[in-house]
Amino acid sequence: MQRKPGRPAKRPAGPDRRTRILDIATDLFGRHGVSATSMSAIARRARITPALMHYYFGNRESLLDALVEERLRPAVAEVAQQMATAREDLRELVECFVRSIIKAVASRPWFPPLWVREVLSEGGMLRERVIDGMGLALIIPLRDRFAAAQRTGALNRDLDPNLLVVTLVSLTLFPFASQSIWRARLGASQVSADTIASHALALLDRGLEIPR
């Protein structure tokens, strides 16, 4: 029986190829943006036919859904899991957030540019999926914890709990999102992820005024 046009001749090889395609798509989205990256461009980079691209992911929306569920959500879940192990001690909670965010980002080089292009930028195609879908579940409890700590005098009352969350995200994500600039311009190619984490915690230590 003659197969229908556009369909692969046989079922493509398992999850490894699909994983590689998703890795390539994630990298291209981070480098060039979602709107500037066509499905055909991803297929060319992956050295597959458009028919195979369609076989695995259907259309761009399905591909973005897969990106969120299989790349972004695990990163956020990793941070949430680490946060769940932190005790009630506020200092430990802040350190856990900073170190777990930096660990997750350092192991996913595509995350910072994708976050800047598609979440922070106006019209970013992942903004609603990421912030409303998963991000708020991580940062709102943290904001509420800061507010509660202020009421008991366990946190600097001059701080705004909302902006404190923004500060924590900025101190952990921005250095990675902008590293192609500051590493070269400042001659700081050897600065490690651990150094970035320690630097952020040192800056926060006095400003938070958490009693020891």
Describe the structure.
- The chain is 72% helix and 0% strand.
- By secondary structure, it is mainly alpha-helical.
- Helix 4 (60-85) runs antiparallel to helix 5, helix 5 (90-106) packs parallel to helix 8 (161-177) and helix 5 (90-106) runs antiparallel to helix 10.
- The longest helix has 26 residues, at 60-85.
- The protein is elongated.
- The chain starts with 14 loop residues before the first helix and ends with a helix.
- Residues 7-12 have low confidence and may be disordered.
- Percent helix range: over 70%
The span between the termini is: 77 Å
- Count of helical segments? 10
Show unreliable segments.
Answer: 7-12
Biggest sheet layout: none
- Output mean pLDDT: 89
Structural class: mainly alpha
What order do the SSEs take from the amino end to the carboxyl end, as H and E?
HHHHHHHHHH
User: Tell me, what's the shape?
Assistant: elongated
What's the total number of strands? 0
As a percent range, the share of strand residues is under 5%
Radius of gyration: 21 Å
Walk me through the topology:
Elements (H helix, E strand, L loop, with lengths): L14 H18 L6 H8 L3 H8 L2 H26 L4 H17 L4 H10 L6 H25 L9 H17 L1 H7 L7 H16 L4
Helix pairs in contact: 1-2, 1-6, 4-5, 4-7, 5-8, 5-10, 6-8, 7-8
Give a brief rundown of this model.
The protein is an all-alpha fold and 212 residues long. Helices cover 72% and strands 0% of the residues.
